[in-house]
Write a structure and sequence with these properties.
Elements: E1 8-10, E2 15-24, E3 31-39, E4 51-52, E5 58-59, E6 64-69, E7 72-78, E8 88-96, E9 104-111, E10 115-118, E11 128-137, E12 140-150, H1 154-160, H2 174-178, H3 180-187, H4 192-204, E13 213-219, H5 225-229, H6 232-247, E14 253-258, E15 262-268, H7 276-280, H8 297-308, E16 314-316
Parallel strand pairs: 13-14, 13-16
Antiparallel strand pairs: 1-12, 2-7, 2-9, 3-4, 3-8, 5-6, 6-7, 8-11, 9-10, 11-12, 14-15
Helix pairs in contact: 3-4
C-alpha cells in the first residue's frame, strides 16, 4: 500500500518493523542520520532517554530500537511495551553537511508488510524531514505519513521537540567550546558537520567542559586489513579528531598501533589528518596492518606516567 503525505492508517500489530531508506549518489558528501523522538501529549520528550539517535539507539527498555545500516536504518518497535506517557513517536532524517534532502535519490519509509511512503525530493531545500509518526488514537496505534521539511540540522530539530542541548552559562571554558566549529573552519572544514553532531551529544551528556588528552590506538593486526582498505579506520579517526579538538587545546592527538608489539606513530593534527591512515600504512619496515594482536600495556603506561606527573587524564579510543 502506497501512502500519501498526511494519510494515516491503523496498525493491527504490536510488533512493528520500519525501514527508512535514504539512497544518495556519489556526489552526495553529507551524512544522513535517522533520529526518533518519543513524545508526550504536549509533543515534547520527557527526558534525554526519549531522544533516539546514533549515540542512543534504544529506549523504553528496548521497546524501541534504532539499527543503522548503509544508506538505511531499521526501526523495531514493541508497541505494547511503550509507556502510556508516550503518545507519539516522530521518525526523522537529518542531513549533516552541505547537502539538502534534494541531493538524495530516494527517501522512503516502509512499514514492513503494511505500507510504504515515498517522499518527493525535487526542489527540496531542507536539511531535515519528519518522515512520519506512530501515534495513539482512541486506544489504538496508527501510522501517519508526513514528509514535512524542517530547516536547520539536528540541533534545531531536537530543540523543537524539547531536547535540552543548552550549554551551562556559568562554565568558564564555554567560549572555547563554542568556537569548536571555528577551530575547524580553516584547516578541516569537512569536519564541521561531525563537530555539530558531537556538540549536541556532548551537551546532552554534560561533557562540554571535559579536558583530556586523546589517544587513538590502532589494531594493526591482519584481521583489520579490510577495514583499512575500505577507509573505515580513517572515518573513525576523523570523528575522534573532532573530539580531540574539543577535549584538548594543544592541537595534537597521539596515535599508536599494536600487533605483535606496539608502535608510536606521528601525532595527528588538523594539518595532516586528511589521508593520515593511508600515509602511515606502509611506513617503515612493517605495514600499519600486519601481524597478530597483542596487549598494548606500553601505551597505557606511557599515558599513566604523564597523568601522574600532573598532566591531563587520557581517553583511549
Amino acid at each position: 500500500m502506497q501512502l500519501q503525505s498526511g494519510q494515516n492508517i491503523p496498525l493491527h500489530t504490536t510488533d512493528l518493523t520500519l525501514r527508512l531508506d535514504y539512497l544518495s549518489s556519489y556526489s552526495f558528501s553529507s551524512e544522513p542520520e535517522t533520529c526518533l523522538f518519543m513524545l508526550n501529549a504536549d509533543g515534547k520528550v520527557t527526558g534525554d532517554a526519549d531522544f533516539i539517535f546514533y549515540n542512543n539507539r534504544s529506549a523504553a527498555g528496548g521497546a524501541v530500537k534504532l539499527l543503522p545500516g548503509h544508506q538505511h536504518a531499521n526501526l523495531q518497535l514493541a508497541l505494547e511495551r511503550i509507556p502510556e506517557t508516550i503518545q507519539k513517536i516522530a521518525i526523522t532524517l537529518v542531513i549533516d553537511g552541505n547537502d539538502t534532502i534534494s541531493g538524495l535519490s530516494q527517501l522512503r519509509l516502509t512499514a514492513t508488510g503494511i505500507a510504504e511512503f515515498n517522499v518527493d525530493l525535487k526542489g527540496r531545500s531542507e536539511k531535515a524531514v519528519i518522515m512520519g509518526e506512530i501515534y495513539r488514537h482512541q486506544g489504538q496505534w496508527k501510522l501517519r505519513a508526513q514528509g514535512q521539511g524542517f530547516n536547520g540540522g539536528l540541533e534545531p530539530l531536537a530543540v523543537s521537540y524539547g531536547v535540552d542541548v543548552a550549554q551551562p552559562e556559568d562554565t568558564p571554558t564555554q567560549p572555547a567550546r563554542i568556537s569548536l566549529e571555528k577551530k575547524l573552519e580553516g584547516k578541516a572544514p569537512a569536519l564541521i558537520s561531525l563537530a555539530k553532531k558531537a556538540s549536541v551529544s556532548l551537551a546532552k551528556h554534560k561533557l562540554e567542559t571535559v579536558e583530556a588528552r586523546v589517544a587513538f590506538v590502532l589494531d594493526a593486526s591482519g584481521s583489520m586489513t579490510g577495514q583499512f582498505k575500505k577507509g573505515h579506520v580513517q572515518s573513525v579517526l576523523d570523528r575522534i579528531a573532532v573530539l580531540s579538538v574539543q577535549f584538548d587545546d594543544d592541537g595534537t592527538m597521539d596515535v599508536w598501533g599494536f600487533a605483535e608489539r606496539h608502535k608510536k606513530y606521528p601525532d595527528v593534527t588538523l594539518d595532516n589528518l586528511d589521508g593520515y591512515v593511508a600515509a602511515i600504512q606502509n611506513t617503515g619496515k612493517r605495514s600499519a596492518c600486519s601481524g597478530s594482536q597483542n596487549q598494548d600495556t606500553g601505551i597505557i603506561c606511557f599515558h599513566f606516567s604523564s597523568c601522574k606527573q600532573g598532566g591531563k587524564p587520557s581517553l583511549f579510543v
